[in-house]
């Protein structure tokens, strides 16, 4: 099988798994309270320019407030448009996760496992069906964070300044859209390249001015020009009790009650469907599972360099820590689990051993 065909099947199967698991079995609902609030706020302005004056002075998320209100202004309450945007954005995110795994030195089989994990992650349904979250995070902030990581890896490989500029721009726009990725450049210090760890750490300091600028912007409420109200759960705080509670809640989303509940909710929704629909979904599950097994078997037979487990593990661990830090001082919920999930996916890829390849071959 040629390399192009290998990549084509890899991408096709993980995208199918994602579409079937999150999109095909659900129907778009409707706008909720936050959506209607943003909808009416966006429609209240006399012109887009007046809207921009208001949103760009937002004290925490000026970029995403701008994109969200502009989208509500022009797309209105057409829920299908937001759902379609979410599906496309999720495919872009999935392919970025796969591309980064490959840039980190993952073998094709390990890359496939990382992508498959993200494709079927059951705790991120809010990112598909909540228009406000789609506009602020799914379709904007998270692609920017992952795009920043991909272009940083390209910069580390080529040393072309254009890649560094793109990485910094993606990070800055991401931070001013949705601050969950504020500490993700922690992972950049362990970028696989010929340079020493010290040089990589020094280069990654290029992201510190953006972090400081955002901190000042938020602490001064847009340099005194904003009038931003933050609900209690968004104000953050540091105390031993809060740190313990938020850490516990984060763990419960991965190996505890919340993960189990997400799986059970999916099963309850499935058994409430008509029998014919259940049969179609089960048949689809069998087809995709069979395709996944076949692709993994085919990729395991590819004669490739050894899976770069060290780079994958180091990057995945630091990415997971960087995406966890904002949650430990605020709160955890399903919509905030995608970026940590990327770290888990790369850690999973690091577990793929050559002897697995021999066993499957």
What topology emerges from the helices and strands here?
Layout: H1 3-24, H2 33-43, H3 48-55, H4 62-75, H5 79-103, H6 108-120, H7 126-129, H8 131-158, H9 161-175, H10 197-204, H11 208-219, H12 240-255, H13 257-271, H14 275-300, H15 309-328, H16 338-350, H17 354-360
The biggest beta sheet reads:
none
**What would you report as the Rg, rounded to the nearest angstrom?**
21 Å
SS-based class: mainly alpha
Stretches where pLDDT is under 50 for at least 5 consecutive residues are: none
Query: What multimeric state do the chains show?
Result: single chain
The total strand number stands at: 0
Shape: globular
Question: How much strand content do the residues show?
Answer: under 5%
Share of residues in helices: over 70%
Give the termini separation. 14 Å
Question: What is the residue-mean pLDDT, rounded to a whole number?
Answer: 84
Tally of individual helices: 17
Q: What is the succession of H and E elements?
A: HHHHHHHHHHHHHHHHH
What do these coordinates show?
With 361 residues, the protein is mostly helical. 71% of the residues lie in helices and 0% in strands. It contains 17 helices and no strands. Helix 1 runs parallel beside helix 6, helix 4 packs across helix 8 and helix 5 runs antiparallel to helix 6. The longest helix has 28 residues. It is globular, with a radius of gyration of 21 Å. The two termini are 14 Å apart.
């Amino acid at each position: 099988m040629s390399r192009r065909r290998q990549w084509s099947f890899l991408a096709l199967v993980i995208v199918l798994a994602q579409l079937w698991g999150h999109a095909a079995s659900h129907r778009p609902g409707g706008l909720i309270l936050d959506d209607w609030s943003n909808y009416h706020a966006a429609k209240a302005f006399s012109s887009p320019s007046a809207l921009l004056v208001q949103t760009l002075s937002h004290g925490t998320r000026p970029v995403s407030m701008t994109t969200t209100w502009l989208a509500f202004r022009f797309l209105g309450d057409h829920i299908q448009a937001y759902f379609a945007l979410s599906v496309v954005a999720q495919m872009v995110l999935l392919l970025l996760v796969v591309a980064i795994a490959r840039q980190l030195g993952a073998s094709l089989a390990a890359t496939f496992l990382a992508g498959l994990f993200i494709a079927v992650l059951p705790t991120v349904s809010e990112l598909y069906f909540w228009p406000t979250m789609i506009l602020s995070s799914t379709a904007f902030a998270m692609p920017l964070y992952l795009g920043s990581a991909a272009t940083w890896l390209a910069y580390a490989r080529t040393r072309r300044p254009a890649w560094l500029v793109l990485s910094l721009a993606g990070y800055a726009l991401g931070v001013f859209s949705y601050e969950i990725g504020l500490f993700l450049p922690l992972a950049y210090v362990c970028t696989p390249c010929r340079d020493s760890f010290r040089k990589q750490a020094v280069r990654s300091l290029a992201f510190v001015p953006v972090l400081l600028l955002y901190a000042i912007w938020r602490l001064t409420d847009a340099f005194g020009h904003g009038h931003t109200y933050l609900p209690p759960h968004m104000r953050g705080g540091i105390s031993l009790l809060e740190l313990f509670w938020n850490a516990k809640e984060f763990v419960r989303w991965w190996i505890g009650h919340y993960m189990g509940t997400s799986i059970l909710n999916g099963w309850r929704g499935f058994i409430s469907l008509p029998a014919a629909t259940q049969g179609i979904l089960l048949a689809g599950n069998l087809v995709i599972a069979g395709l996944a097994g076949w692709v993994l078997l085919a990729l395991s037979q590819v004669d490739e360099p050894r899976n770069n487990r060290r780079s994958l593990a180091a990057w995945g661990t630091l990415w997971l820590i960087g995406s966890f830090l904002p949650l430990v001082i605020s709160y955890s919920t399903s919509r905030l689990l995608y970026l940590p999930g990327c770290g888990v996916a790369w850690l999973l890829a690091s577990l793929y051993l050559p002897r697995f390849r021999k066993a499957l071959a």
